[in-house]
Amino acid sequence: MEEIVLNVEKREKKGKEFAKKLRADGMFPAILYGAGREMMLSVNERKFRNLLHLHRGREHMVLTLLLEGENVEVFLKDVQHHPVTERILHADFEELVKGRKVTLDIDIEFEGIPEGVKEGGLFEPLRRTLRISCLPRDIPELLRVDISEMKKGDTIKVGDLSFENVEILEPPDEVIALLSEPKGKAVKEKEEIAPEEEEAIPEETEE
User: Fold this and answer.
1) Pick the CATH number of 103-199 from 3.90.740.10, 2.160.10.10, 2.170.120.20, 2.40.240.20
2) 15-32: per-residue pLDDT in tens?
3) What is the value of pTM for the model shown?
4) I need a labelling partner for 201 at 20 to 30 A (CA). Which of 42, 111, 168, 188 fits?
5) Through-space distance between the first and last CA atoms of the chain, rounded to whole angstroms
6) What mean pLDDT comes out for the span 81-88?
7) How many CA atoms are closer than 13 Å to the CA of 136, on its beta-carbon side?
8) Tens digit of each residue's pLDDT (9 = 90 or more) over 110-130
9) Which residues contact 176 (CB under 8 A, 6 or more apart)?
10) Which fold has domain 5-98?
11) Is 206 helix (H, G, I), strand (E, B) or coil?
12) Within 13 Å of residue 49, how many CA atoms lie on the same side as its CB?
């Protein structure tokens, strides 16, 4: 696994005013926790953005923080962005303990064109992420799910999925995608069937 390195600084101050000043200087606040300690950090926003860009925008990754001469292996747990400017507001780093698994949500990527879609069916994804547990070195970039063999009426459930060295923390019977008939077509077929059903009903006779 490629080592990702990021320089960070320890900070003592906190609060909205200090965070505002920090961002004005091209930095943003972050926190390091886990392994029995908690520490406030300052991170260079430009360098952090470059790191995310180099790794295709991944916001869940294992990296090494260079902190006052110490190398700290961490998991990037969370990144908060400003809803308008997209500037980075805050980041959470969880210090890793050898042999301990991490829990996180990973995006699903559906691959292929279902057979049922080629026949006029409609593919409906019901989940975009799944919660998983694994060792840091086994964190997948995406959960890739092949849908090319799906036919009309087929579903994909959590229990149908399997990823190497990854445990999915979701109910096995939960449906994450299905392939159905287009609603307009189903209604049309129902309307075409209705007259025949009416003709099949015998008229009542007077006794």
Assistant:
1) 2.170.120.20
2) 888 888 999 999 999 999
3) 0.69
4) 188
5) 87
6) 92
7) 22
8) 999 999 999 999 999 999 999
9) 108, 125, 126, 127, 130, 145, 156, 157, 158, 161
10) Ribosomal Protein L25; Chain P (2.40.240)
11) coil
12) 11
Q: Note the pLDDT tens digit of each residue in 127-151.
A: 999 999 999 888 888 999 999 999 9
The encoded tokens of residue 17 equal 């005013």
Q: Residue ranges per domain, the chain? A: 5-98, 103-199
What is the H or E stretch that residue 20 is in? helix 16-24
Residue with tokens 């790794």: 55
Q: Work out the average pLDDT over 79-102.
A: 91
What six digits make up the tokens of 118? 């080629």
Residues in CB range of 11: below 8 A, 6 or more apart:
22, 29, 40, 41, 42
How many CA within 13 A on the CB side of residue 124? 14
